[in-house]
From TrEMBL:
UniProt-recorded name of the protein: Heat shock protein 70
Ranges where the record places region Disordered: 637-669
Gene3D superfamilies noted in UniProt: 1.20.1270.10, 3.30.30.30, 3.30.420.40, Actin, Chain A, domain 4 (3.90.640.10), Substrate Binding Domain Of DNAk, Chain A, domain 1 (2.60.34.10)
Highest taxon above the source species: Eukaryota
Signal sequence range: 1-22
Family classification: Belongs to the heat shock protein 70 family.
One Gene Ontology term of the molecular function aspect: ATP binding
Amino acid sequence: RARMAPTRLALFCVLLLASSRADDAPLGPVVGVDLGTTYSCVAIWTDGKVEILANDQGNRVTPSYVAFTESERLIGDAAKTQAALNPANTIYDAKRLIGRKFSDEHVKKDMKMWPFKIIEEAGGKPAFQVSTQDGTKTLTPQEVSAMILGKMRDTAETALGKKVVNMVVTVPAYFNDAQRQATKDAGAIAGLNVIRILNEPTAAAIAFGLDRKASQAETVLVFDLGGGTFDVSLLSIDSGVFEVLATAGDTHLGGEDLDNRLIKHLVGLLKKKHPDKDPLKTPAALQKLRREAERAKRALSSSPEVRVEIESLLPGLDLSETVTRAKFEELCADLFRQTIVPVEKVLEDAGVEKSEVSEVVLVGGSTRIPKVRSILKKFFNGKQPNFSINPDEAVAYGAAVQAAVLSGERDKKVQDLLLLDVTPLTLGIETTGGVMASIIPRNTVVPTSKTKRYTTAEDNQVAVTNKVFEGERSLSKDNRLLGSFELSGFPPMPKGEAQIDVTFDLDANGILSVSAVETKSGSTARITIANSDRLSGEEVERMVKEAESYKAQDGRSLERVAARAQLEAYMYACRKLLREKELRGRMIEDDLDTVQGALDNADAWIDSDIGGDAPDASASDFEMKLASLKDETVGPVLERYDASPEGYGTTEGGSMDEEDYDAQAHDEL
């Protein structure tokens, strides 16, 4: 797609948005937190630079683990250290559950590889179940995430000697709104104010580009492969302006999936020798396997092979196996190949060639794996990936910079910084014939507000139902319904005379509000989309892929809708013509009956299973029906009276943005 540099006015407006909070009231210290699947990190802007804050163990990253013993709750390093001894009550991977349903296929698969218990709560949501000193306790993913955020706050308060309430928290770019809102809720549970949800690859791009002195704009691809999620974002970086051009990813692909392949391989080797033994069914054994698989994976990044030794994996049974790097790469070959798909997608969406990418920036601990780097290097025709920033700390670093901007930091380095992020999927409403009318296309810069004008489909219509959808398919039924609301109370008018402006407002955190107003009467209605109904990253990818594979099918469907609309428009114009007293007075009764009967028969055919909403009738069937009315029945009769419905009773309708206006039939609600 063509890319245009943001105007000075646009930059000024967004800068005002970014700093307006700071003008309202002092926020105190605002920290940036990378809330990771496996590890978390906290940072702050101080004395003109970012400082990564070490925890009470002196470590700059903290395991995203929470454990319950008979006497206390442990968070971070202390929780992970005792995990093998207390596997059922040591919980992690909250980020893999947050905002998901218990019935989610990924949740089902993950449960088989976790030593702790997951149960289904009201509303079909998953929750952890643990034994504590106060008895059995159920914890939501938000509560566990809140504990980790609380640990990050404690780390910051100890380092700064000040109370910390405000945070910028990062999430995967492909997190859906339910997951984003749940992350904000986790902050609230911890008594924190999450002032901004920031996309992880965007944060990493800030870390990479903040001090970079480039003579011209650079196109940078951020490849962020972490412990549990994977994002790819393509950005333009120019003089402190970070514009996201496109984003793609997988909210369920990361280092833990590689660990699971190693675990299953080791279990397979064990079962060949001991067919009656299955360590996956024993929490303690599973936790030991997870610990050693992670260690082996890390070792294989620098060694060609590693020995995996686990004493007493099961009672009276030790495990001792050698794993080579070649074997590891074979076990995970499909996962490594999967990482290239989003890379291809962002380049395609942004209309950028491989050769135009200035730097490929690696983020996330899993990018240390040699195979990941070699696949990327090969894809970019020998271009060496850039690993100049710390892959474990880059996201927290960028979050701290954004936190500084939002807190009103006057340092020149951050004062002029501007982020322009995007929405990953098209947002629109359903119009006549079930057509999805795009209002905010995917990869549109956020925050954004877009308005388009629609009209009524029937005479004397006094209400319209606005159905809001998300997806890339041409017909709304193939996309995800986000919500619906009714606009009513406007006076009866002939078809096409009402003017209904529909406005979509998408804020910086990705929360969508929709409003509609009938301009003549002033009737209004609005809705804020419920986050629980938004799409997961996997669904986004699936829908984009389906949109491509079903392009021909969508074309046929649109042709059918357009042909039906032409038939109905002709019939409507004929009926409106027949209501004129002058014409009715001249027509003999037989001719009037012929025309009326033909129109009634066509109506009945449209309402039947063949011509109705069922897909039995093709576009050519509707065209033949229209031709029959024009050439054989209605048309010849009306011609005898010098009356023609052509162009009679049609409306101008149409959207406010004429570039997006496709067909008159599609602008009716």
